[in-house]
Amino acid sequence: MNVMFSLLPLLLPLQVSKAEPVAAKINTVQLTVSRNKAPVPRLRYQLLPATRDLKPMNAAVSYHRAILIMGELARPKLEEWQKTEEKMQKALASPLSETPKEFLRQELGKYPKAVGRELELAARCQYCDWSYEAREEHERLLLLIPEIQKLRDLARYLQIKVRLALAEDRIEDALNDIQTGLAMARHISDGAIFINNLVGLAITNTLLGEIEKLMTHPQAPNLYYALAHLPQPILNHRRAVEGEMRLLDSLLPKLKDLERKMNAEEARKEYEQFHQRYLNAFGGQIPLDLPNNQLALAAWTTLKLPSAKKFLIEQGRTEEQVNAMPALQVILLESTLKARDLRDEIISLYDQPYTDALKMASQTGKKIAQVRATETDVLTVLTMQLVPSAERVLESQFRTERKLLTLQTIEAIRLHESTTGKLPEKLSDIQIVAVPKDPGTGQYFDYEKTEKGFILKTPPLTGINIQPITSWRYELILNKK
Questions:
Q1: Are residues 89 and 189 in the same domain?
Q2: Who's near 117: CB < 8 A, 6+ residues apart?
Q3: ω into residue 112 within 30 of 0, thus cis?
């Protein structure tokens, strides 16, 4: 897989210009949990390795070693793999009491034990450098990232380990493997590409699902403090944002070069350099027609010049300053300013609170769809092809944070019940710990006592077009024995 193809799923949502809003789906989760108190000390169990325990090593080395070791496994035929995968999906969806332990042992036995050792070591490294930045300058969109799918396979290995440990009542082993998996998710998201961030989020959500299963185990500790101790957001998307900006910076003309005084020959060289950068980035083929001879270039310049001049004057330059510029400089400067502003509009969404960002992302998506249908400026159109869909990335980040805070709220309710002997009438009654707020509403999650336990709901958000599941209804039965 390379960067260009990894971005395709992110780009597709922006290609529908008249999509109707999709109603958010509500996923019902039924859990039977036991009364439990907080461990002593409160942070006896942590869901990420403690900073003091990390070694000054690069985790990427151990992940690649684990991939190489895992690569020695015999690959089954497609039909056999599909049957096994179907059986595995069923096993992982089953309640803990019905876990097919022998099947999981058999599947886990296919992996060399060295895979687990490498993942343990990787999770306890101080940093993870995938070296994408050093390669982007030369490979750009042709950068290969073959490890991405393999890292998903390693996450499945850890999920099987966690589930088998829970089924065999090895709670501390399960918590250790969850810790290793969440550390791996954070390390993957450190890759300066949005696809890494999305894979990291997917793995995090898988492990949050395993924490749900763990909460149903009668011997499981209350994980309120462990969940509260996780960083927020659990994955840092800043590096991915900077990576996407750097990728576009390597393709777009630099403003300082275009804003200097130049003659017609220098402007022509700037255009030729830009043309060559895009040829290199797309492996010799540009997905749009660009003038590639003098006659076509002259016609293109004549067509674009009036609107380009008008734009620069509207941005504050005087008519005298614009008229003094060579025609190609005017056109390239206008195109570069528009392209960079569009990029910055999308990137700046990640600096906003989730609900605000999602609303603005929806508006930006409509704007881009409209521009895509009418815009003829080469740099603007190519920028839209390269900048990932903010909606898709933000939805994934929001869904993960909302899920994590929902689980923390459940543990706060259980902690209150185990301390006071009764469930709270409302969430504000909980005083022993801080109850997190719903990042979608800024209020407490919807809570309701029932005869056997309680219901906790994350309501659908109004005015936001969110396609993946971001709302849940947790129905908990409290076993007080």
A1: yes
A2: none
A3: no
327-347 and 378-386 helices cross at what angle (nearest 10)? 20
Q: What share of the chain is helix, strand, coil (3-state, %, to 5)?
A: 60, 5, 30
Which residue segment(s) compose the domain that 100 sits in? 46-220
Verify that 169 and 263 share a domain, yes or no.
no
In a domain, 117, yes or no: yes
Does residue 356 form part of some domain?
Answer: yes
% the chain with pLDDT above 70 = 84
Q: Flag the least confident range among 92-101, 102-111, 388-397.
A: 388-397
Determine the 3-state secondary structure of 320 from DSSP.
helix
| pLDDT at residue 352, as a whole number | 86
- Among the candidates 185, 220, 255, a domain finishes at 220
- Taking the C-alpha atoms of residue 384 and residue 307, their distance in angstroms, rounded to an integer, is 20
- One-letter amino acid identity for 257? D
Q: Check whether residue 200 and residue 329 sit in a common domain.
A: no
302 & 187 share domain: no
**pLDDT for the residue 167:** 97
Cis peptide before 41 (omega within 30 of 0): yes
**Local confidence band at 15 (pLDDT 50, 70, 90 cut-offs):** very low
Distances (CA, A) of 291 to 286, 337, 384: 11, 20, 20
> 215 in a domain, yes or no?
yes
Side chain identity at residue 222, one-letter code? N
Q: Is 16 part of a structural domain of the chain? A: no
Please, which residues have CB within 8 angstroms of residue 340's CB and are 6 or more apart in sequence? 248, 252, 255, 383
Do 146 and 52 share a structural domain? yes
Residues 253 and 196 in one domain: no
Residue 157: which of 100, 92, 97, 234 has the closest Cα? 92
pLDDT, mean over the chain: 85
208 and 346 in a single domain? The answer is no
Find the distance separating the first CA and the last CA of the chain, reported in whole Å. Answer: 52
Final residue of a structural domain among 352, 387, 422: 387
Predicted pLDDT at 460 = 82
Q: For position 246, what pLDDT does the model report? A: 77
Asked if 210 and 250 sit in the same domain, the reply is: no
Question: Could you give the 3-state DSSP secondary structure of residue 202?
Answer: helix
Give the predicted TM-score (pTM) of the model.
0.86
Alpha helices in 95-146 (DSSP H): 101-108, 113-123, 132-139
- Lowest-pLDDT choice from 1-15, 219-233, 340-354: 1-15
Mean pLDDT of 418-445: 95
Task: Collapse the DSSP code of 103 into the 3-class scheme (helix H, G, I; strand E, B; otherwise coil) and give the result.
Answer: helix
Residue 90 has pLDDT above 60, yes or no: yes
The number of folded domains in the chain is 2
